[in-house]
Amino acid sequence: MSKMRLAIVGAGPAGIYAADLLLKAERDFAVEIDLFEQLPAPYGLVRYGVSPDHPRIKGIITALRDVLDRASSGETGDDSIRYFGNVRYGQDLKLDDLKRHYHAVIFSTGAIRDAALQIPGIDAEGSYGAADFVSWFDGHPDVPRTWPLEARSVGVIGNGNVALDVSRMLIKHAEDLLPTEIPQNVHEGLEANPIEELHLFGRRGPKYVKFTPLELRELGEVRDVDMVIDERDFAHDDAFADETLMKNKQVIVMTRIMDKWRDEQRAREAGEVEPASRQLHLHFWSKPVEVVVEAGRVAGLKVERTAPDGQGGIVDTGEFEIIPIQSLYRAVGYFGSPLDEIPFDDAKGVIPNAQGRVLDLEGQQIAGVYATGWIKRGPVGLIGHTKSDAMETLECLLEDRDALWTPDETDPLAIPALLDERGVPYTTIEGWHRLDAHELGLGEPHGRARIKVVPRDEMTRISRGE
């Protein structure tokens, strides 16, 4: 093989890191990499899954953009990367198309659906998945432009960073988000939000949370919001947590943060501090068991109090409480989506694989087909995990080089011609530059870094210079 032609489906961090690592890998052949993305703009969940008030994380886009720009500009010699946005795998391109034009394909399509929560009433009106809400406030082009923000009392289920992001965006005053890149329609929706209190629920105790200290600290720094603590949640005698978890520096820091909130609450209760206009209630040892429904809408959340079992788990106590709320968000994890003609594990929400080599339903390797990122391992891990994950997949790909597909068509102009023939209004990296400049220009008159363009057709039109 003098040149490997590789297709990567999904242009988020996982896909772009896989491309970058292949460019940097030791090899005796050149590579041509085509990245296909269903959205007009690249970068996946970094653009559409990170809260707009977290610019430090969105700074990852700068590094990803450098990968695409460097490889598409010819700086990498005989190696190259091309970006084709607005192309849907399974619709605009099929598996047979990839086999005809490439030696292999890596699927890096991520996980964008909400994991299910099987409790009665979860499908009532006013009950939402966190992933859908995140897509709305991040300006995803395929979600509605409006969001029903009508509740004064809101519940969020989950003790991970997504639950904190959702809670922060719901409880924060809209004017404090103006320095961020939220789309105009999102700002207008949040500005009309009548919320007065938010209740955050977790099945286990405060030392077991999956938050990161920085995220937790940020939640307590939101202007005009009081953190409300239930002292019962800190009264358990939990030797396992004290002897095991309290050796973790992150747990120690988060415990100090919550202890500070408890002190502030005592000061409010003593009349030493004026209360804020909004409250965020933390409910630990609280397992959701039923959504209370009235007239088809969310009216409350029934929880069962839990207790530590002495081994890091929980036991049910038989003590139930109902917290009145008018809307509910479940942030219990993301879940992958099946892909046309590719095996899928419905229970885990991933493509079955061994170290990135995709397997059929009998556990046999499928030649030429690989996976990386969340669609490979599930929605866990940070950006660092995504890089090591991509490296594992690429090592397998390179080991298999003699058993990959043999493409019939190797002309690099064949794919653009095929997409044109099928009437696919695809976008390119040059088109992303146009869209990027346009969004920056929208924000400049308002003193904002960027205002996102939301509708897909407008994004496509700007990207294509039409």
From TrEMBL:
GO MF annotation terms: ferredoxin-NADP+ reductase activity
Annotated protein name in UniProt: ferredoxin--NADP(+) reductase
Residue positions binding NADP(+): 159-162, 203-204, 215, 381
Pfam families xref list: Pyr_redox_2 (PF07992)
Domain FAD/NAD(P)-binding: 5-175
Swiss-Prot/TrEMBL catalytic activity: 2 reduced [2Fe-2S]-[ferredoxin] + NADP(+) + H(+) = 2 oxidized [2Fe-2S]-[ferredoxin] + NADPH
Lineage: Bacteria, Bacillati, Actinomycetota, Actinomycetes, Micrococcales
Cofactor(s) the protein requires to work: FAD
